[in-house]
Write a structure and sequence with these properties.
By secondary structure, this protein is α+β, with helices and mostly antiparallel strands. The protein contains 13 helices and 8 strands. α7 packs across α8, α10 packs across α13 and α11 packs across α12.
Length: 334
């Protein structure tokens, strides 16, 4: 192994044909490096005849190395151009800037192809450091070039999106796990992946992106959750996030008594909000809720009655209970 490595280094450092004499376990050989300027692209090796390589043989090796370099560079350029086209197309597709037909044409997607969208995002480590998203995108691109060259990948300011055509659920999961394993040395456990629902309509990509973004919004701020998730894994949290967004957009939807109760608790060192949440969490079981609060059941009953008198919060109606519970959970988890 060490001898082979030394021979390769010798060939790559040489400016022409490098020759190696016959030894006990090797024929005499001639080799030349394939280069683009000073950048090594590969090597060409030939076993010599008994009389050694001729001048014509050396000329053919030199010409072969030159042609090989041209072919390799041409292939790299074509691959890079195709990658750039696919990247730009996916970015525009996710932004709803292209029609479904245009997306299918640019990405050469046959009609009816099942599409999966995967998003990757990074979380901070214990020191608060977050990996560069461009670094993540480059590492994933290298992995996909080998295992899924038909995929399209694009990087935004926070997320790397990957479009997988024709991927069944199991194969998509295998690819994601393989990618995470491949980049683990560089990123440790700081990467989260989200998988959208599948679709055969390229025009659905914007909605698939929103789904991926919703999932990553949850998993990137909850480090205890799985590193790979679908909507079904975090559905309740995503729903609460949407409710929170709507309450921010439309403050009039907030129950005024909720904020009044929280302010009253803060000012008077009372626990009305905690008492309501405990009772709702216990599905109306007074004894269980009181036990979780370390208070007597009658104390909890008194507090629940006072909630109606002080803040006009009614808990008799199921809809009212649900609305109050959601608002309180959103406040207490923030």
């Amino acid at each position: 192994m060490e001898r082979n490595l030394a021979q390769y280094k010798s060939v790559l450092a040489g400016k022409g044909v490098t020759r190696f004499p016959e030894v006990s376990d090797e024929f005499a050989r001639a080799a030349i490096a394939v280069k683009a300027g000073t950048k090594p692209l590969g090597t060409i090796w030939a076993i010599e005849n008994v009389g050694g390589i001729t001048k014509e043989g050396e000329r053919l090796l030199l010409e072969g190395a030159r042609l090989a370099a041209l072919h390799i560079l041409g292939s790299q350029i074509n691959n890079k151009l195709e990658f750039q086209v696919r990247e730009a197309t996916l970015r525009s597709a996710l932004d709803a800037s292209l029609s479904g037909k245009e997306i299918a044409y640019r990405l050469a997607l046959p009609a009816g192809t099942v599409l999966s969208l995967v998003g990757f995002a990074a979380i901070a480590n214990s020191n608060g450091s977050v990996p560069l998203i461009t670094h993540l995108g480059n590492e994933l691109s290298q992995y996909l070039a080998v295992f899924r060259p038909d995929a399209a990948i694009t990087t935004t300011s926070r997320t790397v999106y990957l479009l997988l055509p024709g991927g069944e659920s199991e194969s998509v999961m295998r690819l994601i796990n393989g990618a995470l394993s491949s980049i683990h040395l560089a990123f440790k456990d700081q990467i989260r992946a989200a998988i959208s629902h599948t679709s055969t309509q390229p025009a659905d990509l914007p909605s698939m992106r929103r789904e991926v973004d919703d999932i990553l919004r949850v998993t990137t701020i909850n480090p205890d959750l799985a590193s790979v998730a679908k909507l079904e894994d975090v559905h309740a949290r995503v729903l609460l996030d949407h409710v929170a967004d709507e309450l921010i957009r439309e403050p009039m939807l907030k129950h005024p008594g909720i904020q009044a109760m929280l302010a009253y608790d803060l000012e008077n060192k009372t626990n009305y909000a905690d008492s309501v949440v405990a009772w709702l969490d216990a599905v109306g079981d007074i004894a269980l809720a009181a036990e979780s609060l370390f208070i007597h059941a009658n104390t909890l009953r008194y507090r629940l009655r006072r909630v109606k008198d002080l803040f006009n919060i009614t808990l008799d109606n199921p809809d009212d209970r649900l609305a109050v519970w959601m608002q309180l959970r959103l406040v207490l988890r923030s």
